[in-house]
């Protein structure tokens, strides 16, 4: 039987950035207490009332103390070191601490080889990929892969970081020739010329009930999500394939919580790109354009509260505000703020660096695809 945690239970979050902030806003509004763990002081989550534990993720003593202080744990950040994921898993089992999603799901999502291998095992379509853990595998990949192809770090890559495109077999062979005998943790993926990018936001509760928002279309600039349009302009068969793939993944790993699953779409075919084991940037439209936000869904999956009977949404769009676009005094911001169809969400960050996510705009209403 699912145990329901009611306010004022203390909910823990690994990570304290904007996703933790928006989760905390939902939880605190309902009377829950929230504690966050990260190396960052005065983090976005702490500015809305979450209690901070400021320590490295590798600090096992601080992590143990944090786990003892909370009633359940979730994640807003997947790049937790493996040893600490093991510690969380062991503590959870020994002390019956609810941890959703499971550390094993986090372990899969944080490593591209494990992730792509899982997709293939579940029969989900991916681009051809080649694990590269040493020079011998790199040499084999050079002969097997089609080019162009993208070489990626298996871990800690996001927003296009840790990626190198090789246009030809000869170019890749030259790179292989420069290698020594050191161990590697890379993956080579064949280049895929897609028509569109999209994503599905899925919630699965502790009883196995699943809800999905209709797929959204995503537009990236310089490898960073720029705009999400909801619902996406996809054919019904494509939407069905995307949602079915998300459900197969969730059930295949007994996932509990919210995730975002990214796709490449070409013609009448889909290919899975990656999944994020937490609320996803492309799901922010749900804060203003749906009957429930992805953060409220995350909260309900964690605490055992029931999911709604269905998800409904209006035509919506979301635009990220990066450091270079952080212009509060601009005429454009004044225009948006004077229009009730636009809602501003800022993350409390003080340093608007290039490409840093400072906030986002949501638009709800007709013409959402042209709002930004």
Automatic annotation (TrEMBL):
Its EC number is 6.3.4.18. InterPro entries: ATP-grasp, ATP-grasp_carboxylate-amine, ATP_grasp_subdomain_1, D-isomer_DH_CS1, PreATP-grasp_dom_sf, PurK, PurK_C, PurT/PurK_preATP-grasp. GO terms for biological process: 'de novo' IMP biosynthetic process. GO terms for cellular component: cytosol. Keywords: ATP-binding, Ligase, Nucleotide-binding, Purine biosynthesis. ATP binds at residues 112, 152, 157-163, 197, 220, 273-274. The keyword 4Fe-4S does not apply. The keyword Nucleotide-binding applies. It catalyses: 5-amino-1-(5-phospho-beta-D-ribosyl)imidazole + hydrogencarbonate + ATP = 5-carboxyamino-1-(5-phospho-D-ribosyl)imidazole + ADP + phosphate + 2 H(+). GO terms for molecular function: 5-(carboxyamino)imidazole ribonucleotide synthase activity; ATP binding; metal ion binding; phosphoribosylaminoimidazole carboxylase activity. Residues 116-303 form the ATP-grasp domain. Pathway: Purine metabolism; IMP biosynthesis via de novo pathway; 5-amino-1-(5-phospho-D-ribosyl)imidazole-4-carboxylate from 5-amino-1-(5-phospho-D-ribosyl)imidazole (N5-CAIR route): step 1/2. Belongs to the PurK/PurT family. Homodimer. Catalyzes the ATP-dependent conversion of 5-aminoimidazole ribonucleotide (AIR) and HCO(3)- to N5-carboxyaminoimidazole ribonucleotide (N5-CAIR). This is N5-carboxyaminoimidazole ribonucleotide synthase. It comes from Leptospira saintgironsiae. The lineage of its organism: Bacteria, Pseudomonadati, Spirochaetota, Spirochaetia, Leptospirales.
């Amino acid at each position: 039987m699912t145990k329901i945690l009611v306010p004022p239970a203390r909910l823990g979050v690994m990570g304290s950035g904007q996703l933790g902030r928006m989760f905390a806003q939902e939880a605190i509004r309902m009377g829950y207490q929230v504690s966050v763990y990260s190396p960052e002081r005065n983090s976005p989550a702490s500015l809305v009332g979450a209690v901070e534990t400021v320590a490295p993720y590798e600090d096992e003593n601080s992590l143990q103390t944090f786990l003892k202080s909370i009633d359940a744990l979730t994640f807003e950040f997947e790049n937790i070191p493996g040893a600490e994921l093991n510690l969380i898993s062991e503590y959870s089992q020994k002390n019956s601490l609810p941890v959703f999603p499971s550390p094993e799901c986090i372990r899969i999502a944080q490593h591209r080889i494990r992730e792509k291998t899982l997709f293939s095992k579940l029969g989900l379509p991916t681009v051809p990929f080649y694990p590269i853990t040493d020079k011998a595998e790199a040499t084999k990949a050079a002969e097997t892969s089609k080019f162009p192809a993208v070489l990626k770090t298996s871990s800690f890559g996001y927003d296009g970081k840790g990626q190198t495109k090789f246009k030809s077999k000869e170019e890749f062979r030259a790179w292989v020739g420069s290698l020594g005998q050191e161990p590697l943790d890379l993956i080579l993926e064949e280049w895929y010329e897609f028509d569109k990018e999209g994503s599905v936001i899925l919630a699965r509760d502790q009883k196995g009930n699943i809800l999905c928002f209709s797929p959204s279309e995503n537009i990236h600039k310089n490898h960073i999500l720029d705009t999400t349009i909801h619902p996406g302009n996809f054919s019904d068969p494509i939407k069905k394939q995307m949602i079915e793939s998300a459900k197969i993944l969730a059930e295949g790993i007994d996932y509990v919580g919210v995730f975002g699953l990214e796709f490449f779409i070409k013609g009448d075919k889909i290919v899975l790109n990656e999944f994020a084991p937490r609320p996803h940037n492309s799901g922010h439209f749900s804060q203003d354009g749906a009957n429930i936000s992805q953060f409220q869904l995350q909260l309900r999956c964690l605490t055992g509260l029931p999911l709604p009977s269905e998800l409904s949404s209006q035509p919506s769009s979301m635009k990220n505000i990066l450091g270079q676009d952080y212009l509060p005094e601009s005429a454009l911001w004044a225009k948006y703020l004077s229009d009730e169809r636009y809602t501003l969400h800022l993350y409390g960050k003080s340093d608007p660096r290039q490409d840093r996510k400072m906030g986002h705009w949501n638009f709800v209403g007709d013409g959402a695809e042209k709002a930004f």
